[in-house]
Amino acid sequence: MAQLPDPLLLEIFQKLPLKSVFLSESVSKHWLSLISDPFFARSYTRNITTTNNYTPPWTLFSTFHEVSLDERAIIRDPELVNIDISLRFMIPVIYSVNQAAVSLKLLDSSKGLLLACSLNDDSQVLDYFVCNPLTKKWVGLPKFLSQPKWVKAVIMVDDDSGDYFVVRIVQLTCYSKVFNFEVFSSESSQWKYVKVCCEKGLRFFVMRRHTVCYNGLIHCLADNHTILVFDPRSDGSKCRLIDLPCDRVSRIVGVIGVSCGFMRYVEVADTYLEPTEEPSLGVWLLKDYDAGEWILEYRIELSEFCSSDLYVTSMFSRLGDITRAVAFHPFDRDIVYLNCSSHLICCQLSTKMVEVVECASDKMRDSLFNFEVFPFALPPWPTPISRKLRVHESLDPLLVELPDSMLMEILQKLPLKSIFCFKSVSKHWFSLISNPKFAKSYTLQIFTKNNYSPPCAIFSSLDQMGFQERVLMRDQELAHTNFSLQFLGPIIGQASTKLLDSSNGLLLLCSMSDSQILDYYVCNPLTMKWVCLPQPLRQPKWVKAAILVEKVSGNFLVVRVAELLFRSKVFNFEIFSSKLGEWRDLTMNCSRRIRFFVKARHTVCYNGMILWLVDNHTILAFDPEGNTNDCHFIDLPPDTESMHLGVLGVSCGLLCYMEVSNNKYEEFREQSLGVWTLKDYDAGEWCLECRIQLNEFWCGDDASDNRWDPDTALCTRPLGFHPFDFDMVFLEQGRRLYCCNVSTRVVKIVDCESHLNNSLFKFEMFPFVLPPWPTPVPQPIWETDQSAN
């Protein structure tokens, strides 16, 4: 085969079917070069079209006027019967290009290419696309030059060069002799204005299809029964006008089209405007293109048409006033298509037979002009999408055929890890999964499951020490993950790090040097994304900070309050908002005198509020997002026994309080652990859940390792609650941190620092709950050069 001369090879290729020609491209680089040469494409096309009675494969697209993508290939050539030739593969495309798009509209077709546009909620055009529905390849056109409300766009493929042109025609409601068209050329990949001058004033209405490509020129049907002929390859100036047939009857402009290589015109006489005339169908053929000479081929009264369906037959006799011509069959001159009420009708002119090929949906039945029809003929050689713009290829049509609602329902049944893996399937899947609506829907679906407990972990941290955080306990789903804060080590540098708070999947930390706070950081330990906050407004020596994450938007607030050694009714908060990217001062007025001690963890987020445990056995509740500077108080349970503050927490969705009584002040009482839940938030009503003597706890089967000592009650301090197990609480005793089950009375050591001295208050505990959907770390708008790595 390698010895065959090129002319002989080319002659052999031209005798083969198109599919075989493309398969031959893979034989060798030389064959690929021969077949890919534009000269071979022109030669192959010429050879095919000169064959007697050649009819290319074709189909007819129908679409509803001003409705989201509902196109159908209503009639198709036998060669296309088993091929998915639709625009459904473009549905994910429009959303990936512009998330404001809500629908796709088919606009025009030419030599195997389709022109479509995406629309927003207001039916404004967002983007234009040129695609090949057979190869599923498409290209997005650059942004057009203007945005008028009503505009018509058509596509024309140049037979000689294979380049295509997209022309935008603006609706003109006033007569004018000068028009500005916007023309896009695939050769230059740019839009340009083309000024066209006419001999007489014209105006255009773009609501219906009145444009056709013929003889390498664009023909636009104006409202005053004139066809404007325009060459998009030229720079404008003069244009040609062709008058419609002078013996037409209807005052309403009909439709022009191309059938069997001739330009034709069809109209339906409207009995509403011509009451003396019977409703009739007229068809003309442009016999002499240069002279603009038309001949009447058919004039048929609608009542003469008949059908095997009696209802269709009766429609023509009684509904002539709402019957409109739609299109011609591209290769059968005896067939035209009409829109009669809510039906698309195929009319056989020679036999006067009609049949329904499409019916509008219920929501469109009451409106006129439901249908638009686009003849689509495949050229002998595929028209290239673009030579300069980036050509995209759609994914497997089987995936595209799934409706978005069904796809989202399937994705919501999957584990979170699998969902994030599916982001890489396609741009459309990525767009669906990244949509905040999907995150909210996924979260809601997870929360409605019975007995749902999200994955959680318990961090412990050593007070005022370097990077000493540990994950004490973790959910089974986190058991095999590298779940820690070690990734922050290189970011912080030589400074020590202190864990401060957690909320909705994010952690708040600070870097310190000589007990002074240097910077605040917010991070997601699962995704290892982080952001550094701007410097606060002030630098007091002792300060407490808390984070509150909005569950809906993912924005967070960081609240700082300085230690108050003397009781006061007025104090200042510093609040940082990730949405605004800056700190602000807030002066709070209270009805009671309070003071803060910030050495221990006395802060919790609950119901969108930040609750601070202040020194006089009172909880200060404060809304950092509220517009008011007021706050309110919740008194601790009246039956508390300890003179020292306990700890607040949230477990199983309830606000809880825990204390360990101190026998130094209650000599006749045993040391005990008390747990309360806030039964009525508005009324501040507490309920005592349990009161357990410390000597009732025991170490289970492994007493030697736990070494629980109830006699050292002075050194026992409550630390916190398990977020989803109400029976599990955490206590600190000396150098050890214990997990205590209040139901079984069993204690178990979960952390120990043997090198520490016997000083009090070494541990802090931070429950970390993963939300059903990962909380994103917002991009730092406060520093454009900062990256949330």
TrEMBL record:
Source organism superkingdom: Eukaryota
Gene3D superfamilies assigned: 1.20.1280.50
Domain (F-box) ranges: 1-47, 396-442
InterPro entries (alphabetical): At3g26010-like (IPR055290), Beta-prop_At3g26010-like (IPR056592), F-box-assoc_interact_dom (IPR017451), F-box-like_dom_sf (IPR036047), F-box_dom (IPR001810)
Pfam families for the chain: b-prop_At3g26010-like, F-box
Name of the featured protein: F-box domain-containing protein
